Amino acid sequence: MKPAPFDYLRAEAEEEAVSALAEAGDDARLLAGGQTLMPMLNMRLVEPAVLIDISRLPGRAAIADDGTAIEVGAAVTQASLEAWPALAGRAPLLARALPLIGHAQTRSRGTVCGSLAFADPAAELPLCLATLGGEVVLRSRAGTRTLAATAFQTGMLSTACREDEMVAAARFPAAEPGAGYAFAEFARRHGDFAIVAVAVIARENGLRIGVGGVAERPVVAEWPLLEGDALDDALDALAWSLDADDDPHVSAHYRRALVQGLGRRTVLAALEART
Amino acid sequence: MKRLEADGRHRVGLALNGREASGWAEPRMLLSDFLRHELGATGTHVGCEHGVCGACTVRLDGTPVRACLTLAVQAEGRRVDTVEGLAPEGELTELQRAFRRHHALQCGFCTPGILMSLTAWLETNPAPHEGEIRELLSGHLCRCTGYSGIVAAALEIAEAQAGRRADD
């Protein structure tokens, strides 16, 4: 339960981090909050030769609101985004999802971009980014590129981020006027990864619903405004389309039932939250 | 950029409970082990070593974190507060006394982490209700108490703080 030896590099600027990454390539891992990587190191699931610490990158510790999106830098912790005073007004979906991530004692170190980079299919932040239609900013020595959430997360624990790239920032679209936002998840214990998580944006003339925890990555659907049986039918079709599997935690049937039940409740909550 | 070689031992200095302290660490050394084995601060307990049980929770620059998910070299130059810092003169804090009154511990293994979480949290959330306290405690595993005594102790302190503020 102790990490294998590694060289430790503390990057004080992003250029240093991407240079070190380019040189070490496959042998390097970026360390941000470490709330996923450190357990993996402790259990020796990964044994990198070099660890590049980006948790103190001064240029990437900020949350910036440019009017259309909230940009969150690589060193921003989940706790600092949760404590951002404008969060509830500018990013209501994140305001609802952040308290459900791990525990207060892990959100204090865990970063927003780190969660996106790890790309767990049941994680809250990738689901929020996909549902909102956000973007990820990738930086390498060669330059910067921006990918849509759907192009970034390619599957279970896998992303389009190259070995020489770091997730430098994430851009979450800001709250749309009049729209309602809701997020809900079901887990056996508070702080566990969700068995099923649902995010919904309710607009004046339509719904956008994202489901996490079932398929290999978050799945997002766009619907007109639905209610009653039409909503149940759409949720039923969505649940079956996700190819749920049995696993040691719950059955596929149980997951589909959660998509239907939790989905309906979350859609209604988002409709209620419209202003 | 600072580079620390894997097989070298590097000097790590930090402020432990307000006092300068230093020791030697390989890059892979966890803060939990550094506190216990290098600095002799064995009040911080090591349970699961993957961030789940909460026994090793300490305050890093005031914020509760898992010492087992932090490298010792990451704490260089920072302030670390452990359970030893709560009662430096041997006089227990109000929260510790409430723990005793409410039987909030039996074997005591999880207690240092819980005290660090609750102490920090009661400073920033002076009037929490039971649901919030239980949510905070979800980050700690206690196999003895069933949590009731811990919740009762925390609520007593919260109510006392709220009462004091009302008097001001």
In total, the number of domains of chain A comes to 3
Count of all domains of chain B: 2
Query: What is the name of the CATH superfamily of the largest domain in chain B?
Result: Beta-grasp domain
CATH class category label of the largest domain in chain B: Alpha Beta
Provide the gyration radius of chain A in Å.
Answer: 19 Å
Q: What's the shape of chain A? A: globular
Distance from N terminus to C terminus of chain B (CA atoms, Å) equals 50 Å
State the separation between the terminal residues of chain A, measured CA to CA. 51 Å
Element-level helix/strand string of chain B: EEEHEEEHHHH
CA-based gyration radius of chain B:
17 Å
- Helix and strand content put the structural class of chain B at alpha+beta
| Main pleated sheet of chain B | 5 strands, mixed
CATH topology of the largest domain in chain B: Ubiquitin-like (UB roll)
What characterizes the major β-sheet of chain A?
Answer: 5 strands, antiparallel
What is the typical, i.e. mean, pLDDT of chain B? 95
E-strand count of chain A: 14
Q: Determine the number of helices of chain B (DSSP H or I, runs of at least 4 residues).
A: 5
Question: What class would the helix/strand composition of chain A place it in?
Answer: alpha+beta
Largest protein-protein interface: A-B, 39 and 34 residues
The global form of chain B is elongated
